[in-house]
Amino acid sequence: MKRFNIYSLMAALSLLILGACTPKHESLFDESASERTANAMAALQEKLLSSPNGWIAEYYPGEPSGEKQYGGFVMSMIFTKDGEAFISSERTRSSDHKYSRGQYVVSSDAGVSLNFVTYNEALHFFADPDYRVGAGVGFGYEGDFEFLLKEETTPDEIILKGKNKGQILRLIRPKTSSEDYLEASMKSYDQVFDWNLIEDQVKDSYAGKVGGKDMVLFFDKLNTFYYIDDEGNEVIVPFIPTDKGIKFQSPLNGVTELTYDANTATLNAENTSLSLREDPNYKYYAEYLGEYIVKDSKHEYNVTFEKAGSTKYKVTCPDWNYYFYANFDAKNRRFAVYVQEIESKPGTKLAMWDTTEGYLTWGNEEIGMYSKQIETADGSIAYKLVDNKVWGSYKADSFYLRDVKGKKLDKTLKPNKIIRPIFIKK
Description:
By secondary structure, the protein is an alpha+beta fold. 16% of the residues lie in helices and 40% in strands. It has six helices and 30 strands. It has helices spanning 2-21, 33-49, 121-124, 178-192, 195-200, 282-286; strands at residues 55-59, 73-79, 84-89, 100-108, 112-116, 146-149, 157-162, 168-172, 203-210, 213-219, 224-228, 234-241, 245-252, 255-261, 266-269, 272-278, 290-295, 300-307, 312-316, 324-329, 334-338, 340-341, 348-354, 359-361, 368-374, 382-387, 398-403, 408-409, 417-418, 422-425. An eight-stranded antiparallel β-barrel has the order 1-2-3-4-5-6-7-8. An eight-stranded antiparallel barrel has the order 9-10-11-12-13-14-15-16. The chain is elongated and about 90 Å long. The termini are far apart.
């Protein structure tokens, strides 16, 4: 009995000691985690609806850095209390179809998020791999349609980060309306990049000073420039159209926004002025324009190299029922013809043909032949085509019109073979 009481007393004392040593945990927040998340979701929903004139959306699809950088795109987004989002994009709108409609939800998965849960053409265009844009079919622009709310949101701005690629979608409250801003930015873009003028006058870049430093910003993919740095590397410069000009994704020599002056046709900022520059390689490009006699092993054709942009030629002949393209290689001042799909006959490829080994290739569009000037008895200018050494051990010397689906020579196109051609300038 005494032993039992002693043990009972010791147990009681142990519990008292443990209880006295157990620390008290107090919450640093007045609300639970679930309450905080619910309130943040409600706040985002309320904010989306607080701009009846919509939100200006700035979006850069693709990889935030690296090779797959694409330019920025402007959208107008209008959210309703019924969970509908009306979105318009410069890439998908037309005069009779300005806005696309889809459903959105504000949810809490890995944080407060804004998810566009049904197909909305204007936004999902950037995520759809079936479009021949960005990195091509199978990839597209590799965009997102589910976004996490970032902390650095301000009263007139909502910053979101793509769940998949980490791209930033920035929503900005407009001073007038998001529709007016989108219209103005499209008009501004058409002034800054009057492509008809640029092609006609053979401009290749905007050149001048950026932040006081001499620079040449070459035209690249849609809504991107590139420049050559001091080490000779190409550096991509994504930008987005604005209602007054363009805005770089990241500051360039301390400069972010450029305003377009229509009177001087220049882009301007502090210590910055850029104007269109004529391509210095154009005179070499122009040497290949004009008419040729093309002789192959059996035939002779009257062929014309027509201008198709500042770096391409459209190769036509009145006796052919198709045409193909040649590219100007400015570095080596020559033209080249690569594997390509026949534009007027989808599904048929201009294949490269090694007539010595009897092999064809049509899958890799980097395989081709380039021009090499040869001597002629009468002193005329003539070129043969030489394999560009991309096809491994095989050497292209001829063209073959391949019906890819039918796996055969396309007999509907004439000529369907051009064997070891010589181009003689008229």
